[in-house]
Amino acid sequence: MPHYRRCLVAGATYFFTVNLADRRSTVLVDQVGALRNAVRKVRAVRPFHVDAWVVMPEHMHAMWTLPEGDADYAGRWRAIKTAFSKSIPQGRGVWQKRYWEHMIRDDRDYAAHFDYIHLNPYKHGLVRNVRDWPYSSFHRMVAAGVYSPDWLCDDVDMNVGEAKG
Length: 165
Prior knowledge:
Layout: E1 13-19, H1 27-30, H2 32-45, E2 49-55, E3 59-65, H3 73-87, E4 100-103, H4 107-123, H5 138-143
Antiparallel strand pairs: 1-3, 1-4, 2-3
Helix pairs in contact: 2-3
């Protein structure tokens, strides 16, 4: 059995890609309310800051900053996946067992992954404008003045994000 080595640094910021087992499924957007409830439930007990998040039909990308002294993102993902699975008709076997995680190294790495998350619906051909995808923290970032409503960054590094291969 392979041994997966995870980078565990308390209080760090991490980028994640989490996939459904069935990559043709649309359950994440079909049941986005249940996903939001699962995240709220977990954050109430095990807080973390959501830097960015996009929910796609069959996968999602998120960037979280954990509290000082806490490196347990795995426990949070396990709790989110479990709460979501228990709240939807499809139930068990919804998720891929593993997920991609990357610890953010510096401001440049943060910016690259932050933009990658928000550009993802466009990258996958789901929208012509990033602002048209409803399941994204992009809208919160526009309200905060981080992005303009018509943002579509041509120089986003598409080599960041989930592992290739």
